[in-house]
């Protein structure tokens, strides 16, 4: 790993933001919109992120969800790389048990060749979908095996990324290309640099593993808020300095939506919550409009879920969101906040990032 690995991992806070701000994109598709519309919005948000000083832009692997068009992070990242120049791009994350480690090493070696020095490889051990879809992805119904083997899969992936299997290993003569082998081949001038590896989690398993290996850690606060502080504490307690980091570095994913008035924010997050109600009850679909959500007859159990879900969504005017994010950062000690704006319309999501950037006084384009 290059000596400047920590510099790529540790971002710089801009304006009055307490820590670096980043973006997590689920490439959400609203009712009446297409996946093409959603991907165009992703380009617009990535460009805004780059121009306003957000540190990184990640996309997350999901499957069999009509309202989430991010089933192929590497493909989306290649598209975003062609439309940006400076912002870091990465996966938040690729679900390692769904893929052969060599395939991921090849994909992210290709991305590193496309956008040298600005690619992150975030890895998760959950399937990013339901059990039946995971079985179809992996061509097996032994799903627990994939999760249990995660540390071994991770070690294999890192060996492929570094091209350093030991002599006698069955994979010693196999190389992930593009990759470091091209630097050591006759006439090779390829950089040996490869993307930093992050571990993602929503519980303690990956927190402990990331700490033990001295890797950066990303926690899914946006859907597992009750576990955030315990997981970050475990990560910090478990941390061992490595060639990558000499001290812990943890970001948290946060649902945050800013609008021009508080009422509109409530309408938008209600629609996103209805989408989650349907997903959690086995009825995944496109993100509904605010009008559909307002007309929906929520059952008492659904109302309880919505209240609980939205209690962890930082939403309101730009000033209210800024205050909420500041409080969350102080409470968790997170080194970076990665914001995800879930709403029906791409214009609403784009406006949210603009408002948050303005609220923190982030740089404006020259």
Relevant terms:
366 residues, eight-stranded parallel barrel, single chain, alpha/beta, globular
Instruction: List how many beta strands DSSP finds.
Output: 9
Using the CA coordinates, give the radius of gyration: 20 Å
End-to-end separation = 34 Å
The SS-based structural class is alpha/beta
Strand order of the largest sheet: 1-2-3-4-5-6-7-9
C-alpha geometry: globular
- Mean pLDDT across all residues, rounded? 94
Number of contiguous helices: 15
Tell me the β content: 5-15%
Write the element-wise H/E pattern from the N-terminal end onward.
Answer: HEHEHEHEHHHHEHEHEHHHEHEH
- So what's the oligomer here? single chain
Main sheet characteristics:
8 strands, parallel, barrel
Structure in words:
With 366 residues, this protein is an alpha/beta fold. The protein is 45% helix and 13% strand. It contains 15 helices and 9 strands. An 8-stranded parallel barrel has the order 1-2-3-4-5-6-7-9, surrounded by 8 helices. The longest helix has 19 residues. 50% of the residues are buried.
Care to give the gist of this entry?
With about 375 residues, the chain is α/β, with parallel strands linked by helices.
């Amino acid at each position: 790993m290059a000596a400047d690995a920590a510099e790529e991992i540790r971002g710089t806070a801009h304006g009055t933001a307490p820590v670096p701000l980043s973006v997590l994109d689920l490439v959400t598709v609203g009712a009446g919109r297409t996946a093409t519309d959603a991907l165009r919005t992703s380009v617009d948000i990535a460009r805004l992120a780059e121009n306003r000083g957000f540190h990184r832009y990640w996309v997350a692997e999901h499957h069999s969800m009509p309202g989430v068009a991010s089933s192929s992070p590497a493909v989306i990242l290649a598209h975003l790389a062609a439309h940006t120049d400076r912002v870091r791009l990465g996966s938040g994350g690729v679900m390692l048990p769904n893929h052969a480690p060599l395939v991921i090493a090849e994909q992210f070696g290709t991305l590193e060749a496309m956008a040298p020095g600005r690619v992150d490889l975030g890895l998760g051990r959950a399937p990013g979908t339901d059990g039946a879809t995971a079985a179809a992805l992996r061509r097996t119904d032994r799903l627990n095996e994939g999760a249990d083997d995660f540390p071994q899969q991770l070690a294999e992936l890192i060996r492929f990324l570094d091209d350093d299997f030991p002599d006698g290993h069955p994979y010693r003569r196999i190389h992930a290309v593009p990759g470091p082998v091209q630097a050591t081949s006759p006439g090779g001038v390829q950089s040996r640099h490869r993307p930093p590896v992050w571990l993602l989690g929503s519980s303690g398993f990956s927190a402990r593993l990331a700490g033990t290996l001295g890797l950066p850690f990303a926690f899914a606060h946006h859907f597992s808020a009750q576990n955030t502080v315990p997981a970050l504490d475990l990560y910090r307690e478990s941390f061992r300095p490595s060639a990558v980091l000499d001290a812990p570095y943890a970001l948290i994913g946060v649902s945050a939506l800013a609008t021009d008035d508080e009422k509109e924010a409530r309408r938008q997050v209600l629609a996103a919550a209805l989408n989650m109600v349907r997903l959690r009850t086995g009825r995944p679909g496109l993100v509904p409009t605010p009008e559909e959500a307002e007309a929906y007859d929520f059952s008492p159990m659904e109302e309880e879920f919505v209240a609980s879900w939205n209690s962890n969504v930082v939403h309101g005017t730009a000033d209210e969101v800024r205050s909420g994010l500041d409080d969350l950062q102080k409470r968790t000690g997170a080194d970076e906040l990665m914001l995800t704006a879930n709403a029906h319309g791409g214009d609403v999501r784009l406006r949210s990032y603009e408002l948050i950037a303005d609220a923190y006084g982030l740089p404006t384009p020259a």
